[in-house]
Amino acid sequence: MKAQAADLSKPIDKRIYKGTQPTCHDFNHLTATAESVSLLVGFSAGQVQLIDPIKKETSKLFNEERLIDKSRVTCVKWVPGSESLFLVAHSSGNMYLYNVEHTCGTTAPHYQLLKQGESFAVHTCKSKSTRNPLLKWTVGEGALNEFAFSPDGKFLACVSQDGFLRVFNFDSVELHGTMKSYFGGLLCVCWSPDGKYIVAGGEDDLVTVWSFGDCRVIARGHGHKSWVSVVAFDPYTTSVEESDPMEFSGSDEDFQDLLHFGRDRANSTQSRLSKRNSTESRPVSVTYRFGSVGQDTQLCLWDLTEDILFPHQPLSRARTHTNVMNATSPPAGSTGNSVPTPGSAAPPPLPRSNSLPHAAVSSAGSKGSVADGAIAAGVSKFATLSLHDRKDRHHEKDHKRNHSMGHISSKSSDRLNLVTKTKTDPAKALGTPLCPRMEDVPLLEPLICKKIAHERLTVLIFLEDCIVTACQEGFICTWGRPGKVGSLSAPSQATPPGGTAV
């Protein structure tokens, strides 16, 4: 029997707020059931509310008196593997770790330093009894715009208005690596399904791919004409290919095929990835698919392919949608057209199978900027965004969150403690590993750029059957994948009352 679609005109819960606006939210997939779900909502005045929209219950309000932080909540997420811990980021540049079982207290909290490194410091809350917040993180300068936990929950990637991506070991509170935007602030961040790569986007109109293992930028993508607001990997079309490169003509039908490509082979991805390091003569090609949406109202789809991930493999054997050639660097503060360098000794460019008539830039190639040993061992089991199976899977997690803060050493052996409060000059970062010049790393072209809204886009979520987007106008759109109900040319839409949605 075919399941009926939800009636989007009849929400299960509706709340109207006066004097403050919801800015972000997160469901606890670990504890969610058909009868109950824990939802955190962050607000523009700094508060965080815990509600159950199914039971119509309001559990708690955190930072109610705004004694902890008065600034806008920019991101809120449950700590992976925990039923009670959650992390909140503010436009003040601070993050706070809360426990739903603890109160916030009636006076402003007092802190003592736990650990400090370059451009970050972590404090614990001094009080006679345990109270929120458990920890206070101060990261970079300016607003902390977004953070994301790695798939295994052990690492935390943060992007800030100062233009830096900072990746921390969450439990030991140590800095793993950093990256600087080409210019401007970074607004969004996401992890690949296997945790090997991080993609960030922001005010430089670029998407930047950073290798977690090598702690370096391995590629940039240019296709947006304005700030990039959301980046997300599509675990259902991340694929392993042994076939020839797929040609792309740029039509709407091909756009739908691109969304679908590789999904029917998702179940065999792990086993086929294991061949990547085998002794078989024919190489197996890995492709990560990710998307981005921006203030230019466009959705861009990108492939991170074998020639970028493993540049020492012969390019003729790699399945790719990326053109490889040298390019000159645009001036700082600009993401203009790239021009091939005259007289360069680069290999002949690959066929421009994904070229678009309105492509903003040419593609640039790698100059051996990725470490020789950067070979991925395999992609772990992909996480899904559905609620029903998270409950069944959470007991399989081998990484358990330690609820005690005592295991974090106050005397870190991390080399960062040798550098006290030195600040990185963003102007001096260009041309260094923190921020390579445009010609020093491959430049990706999007598989497709498509205008899908009239106002700036604010949400991008990849589900098995569809893609979900939302814009500032208040429209929530579901784009059906090929073979499923609906299509990219006719999305289903839901507009909440007042034009805003949590």
From TrEMBL:
Give residue spans, biased composition: Basic residues.
391-404
Going by the entry's taxonomy, the superkingdom of the source organism is recorded as: Eukaryota
Q: Any keyword Cell membrane?
A: no
InterPro entries on file = WD40/YVTN_repeat-like_dom_sf (IPR015943), WD40_repeat_dom_sf (IPR036322), WD40_rpt (IPR001680), WD_repeat_creC_regulators (IPR051362)
Pfam families the UniProt entry points to: WD40
Instruction: Please list where the region (Disordered) is annotated.
Output: 324-366, 388-415
Spans of the WD repeats are 179-211
Q: Which UniProt keywords apply?
A: Repeat, WD repeat
Return the Polar residues bias intervals. 324-339
PANTHER family, per the entry: WD REPEAT PROTEIN, WD REPEAT-CONTAINING PROTEIN 20
* UniProt-recorded name of the protein: WD repeat-containing protein 20 isoform X3
Q: Which organism is it from?
A: Bos indicus (Zebu)
